[in-house]
Amino acid sequence: MKKMVASLILSLLAIVIQAQEVVPYRIFNSKASIVSFEILAEQANNSDVVFFGELHNSAIAHWLELELAVSMQKRFSSNLVLGAEMFEADNQLLLDELLEKRIPIQKFEADGRFWPNYKTDYKPLVEFALANKLRFVATNIPRRYAAAVGKDGLFILNSFSADAKRYFAPLPILYDTSLSCYKSMQSMAMASGGHGPAYIVDAQAAKDATMAHFIMLNFPKEGAFLHFNGSYHSDNHEGIVDLVHRKMPKLKILVITTVEQDQLETLDDENEGHADFTIVVNSRITKTY
């Protein structure tokens, strides 16, 4: 009898400890069921293009990006290509020179234009590509051209030189204005009373189209492309994803998104249905900036 009571107490204690366990993140599939990282990685390793939609200041997202790159490199070896919104197309030569070991990483970092959180969040990806001889594509439109579009609209890109046009998507840039990502951005711009760029949706479309263009231009026929971008660019299979799918409909595309929640046991209603996998990060996790 004493043994049964002791066993019951230990079982109850284990349940209490488990209930109090601090969980930094959980992963949900498209049916809002909790799954392991291994299941996500397995699906990624059976895809042609993987869009990892991140929260830019999430340490958990950046760690899982690296872990996914490690997993996919084991599957595809040198046929895995990395690409990122965080690197602009006119920095591709510099990135290539680094990966070809023609310049040291110190020179790369001195001469490049990087986001403020580059060293903590994106340098590990660059170092991983360097160590494993992977191609890394700078996919984003240079910010000076995006700013020009934000001010004057997409037509302004026609006025730039042929050399400049190498760094953004071929003209004319066409996009589906009915997609929710563009409609909601337009609604937010109107709600702000006109503050911000006059053509903010055009600027977003220029970024999406340019990233889609460089992904398709550098897609490995015998491998896979892993792209890192803010989740807004790929949520709901819109933005970059929609543009790639229209041109290359036979590709197997996997979309990951990242959100924050106060609780991690279920997916909040507003976070359901936006991606094939949703990484839910504990909202109390420290941000990288």
From TrEMBL:
Residue ranges of domain Haem-binding uptake Tiki superfamily ChaN in the record: 40-242
Pfam family of the protein (one): Cofac_haem_bdg
CDD domains, alphabetized: ChanN-like
InterPro entries in the record: Cofac_haem-bd_dom (IPR007314)
SUPFAM superfamilies cross-referenced by the UniProt entry: EreA/ChaN-like
Top-level taxon of the source organism: Bacteria
Protein name from the UniProt record: Uncharacterized iron-regulated protein
Lineage: Bacteria, Pseudomonadati, Bacteroidota, Bacteroidia, Bacteroidales
Record organism: Williamwhitmania taraxaci
